[in-house]
Design goal:
The chain is an alpha/beta fold. It has 2 domains: about 45 residues, no CATH class; about 170 residues, 3-Layer(bba) Sandwich (Glucose Oxidase, domain 1), CATH 3.50.30.50. Helix content is about 25%, strand content about 20%. The protein is built from 5 helices and 13 strands. The chain is globular, with a radius of gyration of 21 Å.
C-alpha cells in the first residue's frame, strides 16, 4: 500500500472513532493537567502561576553539527489532499547527536546504558544553571569547582539528583565545536558530592574541543548529558524543574530531545 493510501486509511479510521474517543481524551487531558499543576515542583500547591521555557533549538538542515555527522534531511512523503483529506507526512533522517540532544552513557562507555534505558525519574529533575557567560571569552575557558562554590554561596547547595546546566553564552552558531565547557574535575565533583542525574550545556559539547574528560566523568557514572541547550538566560539560576524528553530509541547512544524548564510560583 502506498504512503498516500496508508494515511487515507488512517484518516477514515480516525473519523470513525473520533466521536467515541473525544470524551475520554478530553477527560484524560484534564486529569493530567491537574496532576502536573500539583506536582511540577516539590511542595508546590495547585493553582500557583506556572511558566514553561523551551530550552530546545529548532532542528533544521543548517543547524551546526559535529564534523562527520550525517546531515539533517526532511523529505515530504504525502500531503493533505483537497478538502483537508489525508495527512501530511515527512521522512526524516538525522544523526542521533543532532540539535538539542541527549548523550546516553553508551555514547562513550562500552558497557553504558542506551538512551532507552535512562530511568524516567532521572529525566525530571531540579535545574541548576551555572553561568560563566561574564568571563567566557575563550573556547578554552572551563566551568570549575570554584564556579560551583561561588554558585552555591549565592543560591544554596545544588539539590541531590539535579541537572546542572552550564550557561556559557556561546550558542552553537557562535563557537561551533570550539567553545567553553566543563572541567572534568568539576563533573566528577558534581557526580560524587552532589549526586546529579546529568549535566547540560548551551554549546555543542560538554567537553572542550579535543578533550573527553567531562564525557567520561558523567557517562562513566551512568548519568546523561544534554548538549546544545537554548534559552538558559531565560531561566533562574535555581528553583526551576527541567523535563528532558529523551527519545526511546532501542539501543540508541542518544538522540534529539525536547527540553523544557518549568517555573512555578516565585521563581519567575
Amino acid at each position: 500500500m502506498c504512503d498516500d493510501e496508508v494515511v487515507q486509511h488512517a484518516h477514515d479510521e480516525a473519523r470513525r472513532f473520533s466521536r467515541r474517543t473525544a470524551l475520554a481524551v478530553t477527560g484524560g487531558a484534564a486529569v493530567a493537567g491537574a496532576v502536573f499543576a500539583g506536582t511540577s515542583r516539590a511542595g508546590a500547591a495547585p493553582g500557583l502561576p506556572r511558566r514553561v521555557v523551551d530550552l530546545t533549538h529548532t532542528l533544521t538542515p543548517d543547524f551546526p553539527l559535529w564534523r562527520g555527522s550525517a546531515p539533517v534531511v526532511a523529505v515530504p512523503t504525502s500531503q493533505i489532499g483537497p478538502g483537508d483529506s489525508g495527512f501530511a507526512t515527512r521522512w526524516m533522517s538525522f544523526s542521533e547527536h543532532s540539535g538539542t540532544h541527549v548523550d546516553a552513557p553508551a555514547h562513550k562507555i562500552g558497557s553504558g546504558i542506551t538512551v532507552d534505558r535512562i530511568p524516567p525519574g532521572d529525566l525530571v529533575a531540579p535545574l541548576a544553571v551555572i553561568s560563566i557567560a561574564g568571563r567566557a571569552r575563550s573556547p578554552r575557558d572551563l566551568l570549575t569547582e570554584r564556579d560551583i562554590a561561588a554558585y552555591e554561596q549565592r543560591h544554596g547547595r545544588i539539590p541531590q539528583r539535579a541537572l546542572v546546566a552550564l550557561h556559557t553564552g556561546w550558542q552553537p552558531r557562535t563557537g561551533g565545536v570550539q567553545a567553553p565547557a566543563f572541567a572534568p574535575s568539576a563533573v566528577t565533583m558534581l557526580v560524587a558530592e552532589r549526586g546529579v542525574v546529568g549535566i547540560g550545556t548551551d554549546t555543542l559539547s560538554i567537553d572542550r574541543y579535543g578533550d573527553v574528560g567531562a564525557h567520561t566523568a558523567i557517562l562513566g557514572a551512568g548519568r546523561y548529558a544534554v548538549e546544545a541547550l537554548a534559552n538558559l538566560a531565560a531561566v533562574p539560576a535555581a528553583g526551576a524543574t527541567v523535563m528532558v524528553g529523551a527519545p526511546k530509541f532501542a539501543g540508541g547512544t542518544g538522540g534529539p530531545a525536547r527540553v523544557l524548564a518549568v517555573l512555578v510560583g516565585g521563581v519567575f
